[in-house]
Design brief:
Elements lengths: L2 H17 L1 H12 L3 H21 L7 E2 L6 E9 L2 E5 L7 H12 L3 E5 L5 H17 L7 E3 L4 H9 L3 E7 L2 H13 L3 E5 L4 E5 L5 H13 L9 E7 L3 H13 L19 H16 L3 E4 L3 E2 L9 E2 L2 E4 L15 E7 L2 H9 L3 E2 L1 E5 L3 H8 L8 E4 L15 E2 L16 E9 L14
Parallel strand pairs: 3-4, 3-6, 4-5, 6-7, 8-9, 8-16, 9-14, 13-14, 16-17
Antiparallel strand pairs: 1-2, 2-19, 10-13, 11-12, 15-18
Bound molecules: nicotinamide-adenine-dinucleotide.
């Protein structure tokens, strides 16, 4: 199928996703525990990437370069890679699959998906809609497959030489296993791993705007986003005021059944997540931190077995081991700084490098944060939180986050192989670099 026709399959998928947005969001909510607007937002992200990929299907551009030899044309062409294996995490059960799949399909690849074992229904629903789109557009059979399996099933994909690219979203330990195994067989890998996202708040920041940005990023999805804000690095002149406002705002959060539209914070994934949060809070206290609010389990009558928690704010004396770890729960560590260079050092002094932000009205400070000696993350924002990226910009991070880029800009290139073509129409055989032979 020519690329624009492949785009039609994705276009139809996007239409079906629009038609069934609420249905799919119900599955996402049931399995991942997201509040309704976030579950709908996740499906909207799938629709947005379909739109993006349809446009991309007519823009798989290759360059033409001037050849150093007369009567020669030098150019590049882009070809499908083959089979793309997609492994996804529980907390975004469907959007990262769509980021990969919409682009992989227009690039001419087929996809095999190993979703999280915790979000199987969302995966089956998503796959059923894509299958319908493919059938209606008379695409070849089985361009998309879903494999319901645990990590062992994932490893079969990882080790299979027929799978040209493994795109894996999940924790850093998962990436540490997957990366070398794919490299061992010279396969390609695209890793979207854990984050430990921080924001700097400068002395000139608009504190009301900062408050709203921080609360959404730190407690949205109950702190279970790869881009959740986990560290707040605040100038010493405003740290007390901002912290006070944050503690007050945390006190007003409604926590409970995510289907109830008045609730802003749904449950943690399971008991293990709750245990990890408690352990991190203990460690933080051992390392000199003070828990200012939160951490307690909230028992909800309608779902007594669910693990709801009061999001926590912990004042830390500075950098420490616990702050360097991603704990997949709503804990916000607050630290203070006096010099901007100190803030950058604290900010970049963690192993992960996904998302970052600065709240400031000082243009020089903002530019420094975005410069090469500022934030070392794949995403760096000004006056906006660390989470809630939109389709169109490349998504991904540096260091332990794995280096992958998805969902926008020229990330389509990850799903294709590039060939360089030299065409000689001179009738002679001049060699490059002026080499003489025969
Ligand atoms: P996880 O690492 O436990 O599992 C993710 C997926 O990998 C699952 O499908 C799992 O079955 C599979 N898996 C695990 N080990 C594997 C192995 N050795 N070989 C093949 N497959 C394997 O992660 P999780 O608990 O589901 O999700 C939370 C984590 O994911 C957090 O660290 C979060 O930051 C990260 N995450 C990152 C992004 C991103 O885009 N950077 C997005 C969402 C989640």
């Amino acid at each position: 199928m020519p690329a624009p026709e492949r785009g039609n399959v994705v276009k139809r998928w996007g239409e079906l996703l629009t038609e069934h947005k609420e249905d799919l969001a119900v599955l996402v909510q049931a399995e991942a525990g997201k509040i309704t607007s976030e579950a709908l937002g996740e499906v909207q992200e799938m629709i947005d990437i379909c739109d993006f990929a349809v446009g991309q299907s007519r823009m798989l551009y290759g360059k033409t370069m001037p050849s150093e030899r007369a009567g020669h044309r030098l150019m590049e062409t882009w070809h499908p890679l083959g089979v793309v294996g997609i492994i996804t995490a529980f907390n975004f059960p469907v959007a990262p699959y769509a980021w990969n799949t919409a682009l992989a399909l227009v690039c001419g690849d087929t996809v095999v998906w190993k979703p999280s074992e915790a979000t199987v229904l969302s995966a089956l629903g998503t796959n059923a809609l894509l299958e319908r789109a493919a059938r209606e557009c008379e695409a070849p059979n089985h361009i998309n497959q879903v494999v319901i399996a645990d990590r062992n099933g994932g490893q079969q994909l990882v080790d299979d030489p027929r799978v040209a690219l493994i795109s894996a979203t999940g924790s850093v330990p998962m990436g540490r296993e997957v990366g070398p195994r794919v490299a061992e067989r010279f396969g390609r890998v695209l890793l979207e791993l854990g984050g430990n996202n921080g924001a700097i708040v400068g002395p000139s920041a608009d504190l009301d705007l900062t408050l709203r940005g921080v609360v959404f990023a730190a407690v949205g999805t109950a702190g279970q986003r790869c881009t959740s804000m986990r560290r707040l690095i605040v100038h010493e002149s405003v740290v007390d005021e901002l912290t006070e406002k944050l503690v007050e705002a945390y006190g007003t959060l409604s926590i409970g059944d995510p289907r109830n539209e008045s609730n802003l914070v749904g449950p943690l994934m399971n008991e293990k997540s709750f245990g990890a949060m408690q352990e991190a809070l203990r460690e933080a206290q051992d390392q000199g931190g003070t828990v200012l609010t939160g951490g307690e389990r909230v028992l909800a009558e309608e779902l007594p077995e669910a693990y709801y928690v009061q999001p926590a704010i912990v004042r830390m004396p500075g950098q420490s081991d616990v702050v360097k770890k991603e704990t997949f729960a709503p804990i916000l560590y607050v630290m203070s700084y006096s010099e901007f260079s100190e803030a950058i050092e604290l900010h970049n002094g963690v192993p992960q490098g996904l998302s970052s932000a600065i709240f400031t009205n000082d243009q020089l400070e903002a530019e420094r944060f975005l410069s090469s000696s500022g934030s070392d993350c794949g995403i760096a924002n000004v006056n906006i939180g660390t989470s809630g990226a939109e389709i169109g910009g490349a998504f991904g991070g540096e260091k332990d986050t794995g280096g992958g880029r998805e969902s926008g800009s020229d990330s389509w290139k990850a799903y294709m192989r590039q060939a360089t073509n030299t065409v000689n129409y001179s009738g002679e055989l001049p060699l490059a670099q002026g080499v003489k032979f025969l």
